[in-house]
């Protein structure tokens, strides 16, 4: 639970940080979606009567809904493979430097 929940927190905060740096809204929304995916996983294993993951998920959803008019790709999957975006230089578990 905690790993998924805090992973969501990291993604959500990263999205907000990117917005403050002026990145396109679509980029930030994709990070909010990653956070939502993590919160979904956390919610499935959360302790009874612990609504934190659901509340954080709702916060991300409200943000996306408020900015949906400027987002160009609001249908992107919540399960996007983030590691795939690293390109050919990225090899899991190996130092390529």
Short recap of the structure:
This protein has 97 residues and is mainly α. The protein has 3 helices and no strands.
* Helix-strand pattern: HHH
- Sheet with the most strands? none
What Rg, in angstroms, do the CA atoms define?
15 Å
| Secondary structural class | mainly alpha
The shape is elongated
Pick out its properties.
97 residues; mainly alpha; 3 helices; 56% helix; disordered C terminus
Give an account of the 3D structure.
With 97 residues, this protein is an all-alpha fold. Helices cover 56% and strands 0% of the residues. The chain has helices at 2-20, 25-44, 52-66. Helix 1 (2-20) runs antiparallel to helix 2 (25-44) and helix 2 packs antiparallel against helix 3. The protein is elongated, with a radius of gyration of 15 Å. The protein starts with a helix and ends in a 31-residue tail after the last helix. The relative contact order is 0.16. The model is unreliable at 73-86 and 90-97 (pLDDT under 50).
Topology overview:
Blueprint: H1 2-20, H2 25-44, H3 52-66
């Amino acid at each position: 639970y905690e790993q998924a929940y805090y992973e969501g927190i990291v993604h959500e905060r990263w999205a907000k940080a990117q917005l403050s740096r002026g990145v396109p809204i679509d980029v930030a929304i994709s990070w909010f979606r990653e956070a939502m995916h993590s919160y979904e996983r956390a919610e499935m294993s959360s302790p009874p009567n612990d609504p934190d993951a659901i509340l954080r998920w709702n916060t991300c959803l409200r943000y996306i809904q408020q900015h949906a008019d400027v987002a160009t790709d609001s249908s992107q999957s919540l399960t996007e493979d983030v590691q795939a975006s690293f390109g050919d230089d990225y090899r899991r578990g190996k130092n390529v430097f």
